[in-house]
Amino acid sequence: MEDNIILRLATEDDAGLIADLSRQTFLDTFAADNTVENMDKFMTRQFSREKLIDEVRQPWHVFFLAMLNERPAGYVKMREGAVPLMLAGQSCIEIARIYSATEMIGKGVGKKLMQAAIDFAGRKQKKVIWLGVWERNQRAIDFYLKWGFEKIGEQTFLLGDDPQTDWLMMKELRH
């Protein structure tokens, strides 16, 4: 199955597709563990389709799109810029989001996306790749640990009116 997954760098033409995939995967991943009110508030204010489309157009964001049998299977969003204090002064890049469509979980999409992110960071000569993950998203935490990420701290993520704790995780890259 993994051999059938096609990865490509997303373009502005993919903005609507990525926005829709972003919203669906976020809802599928987090709706069951949060209130309808907080999810609605987050989806309307911070995660609107318009804001997500605009993200794809920003030059400091890089998106890789995974397709399986010509269907959207997942994506990874990477960005350079602000870093947690404990990584200040290091050559870093962030995995801002990495999601597989629910029906694609277990088919190797996440593996392909993570490898693409690590390869991209290497081409950019980054020493560290980092991310934030909700402390209650054990499936994702286990995935990152398997890839050699380690917890380096915590930060607050506001979902609607609910301040949640995200783990900050990093992986040192060898060139």
Radius of gyration over alpha carbons? 16 Å
Our count of domains comes out at: 1
- Cα distance, first to last residue? 29 Å
CATH H-level superfamily = Gcn5-related N-acetyltransferase (GNAT)
Q: Helical content, roughly?
A: 25-40%
CATH class designation: Alpha Beta
Strand order of the largest sheet: 1-2-3-4-5-7-6
What is the H/E string? EHHHEEEHEHEE
CATH architectural type:
3-Layer(aba) Sandwich
**pLDDT average, as an integer?**
94
CATH topology call: Aminopeptidase
Shape type: globular
- The low-confidence parts are none
Structural class: alpha+beta
**Number of separate helices:** 5
Please give a structural write-up.
The structure is a single chain. The protein has about 180 residues and is α+β, with helices and mostly antiparallel strands. It has a single domain, classed as Gcn5-related N-acetyltransferase (GNAT) (Aminopeptidase, 3-Layer(aba) Sandwich), CATH 3.40.630. Helix content is about 35%, strand content about 35%. Strands 1-2-3-4-5-7-6 form a seven-stranded mixed beta sheet, sandwiched between helices. Strand 2 and strand 3 form a beta hairpin. The protein is globular and about 45 Å long. It starts with a strand and ends with a strand. The mean pLDDT is about 95.
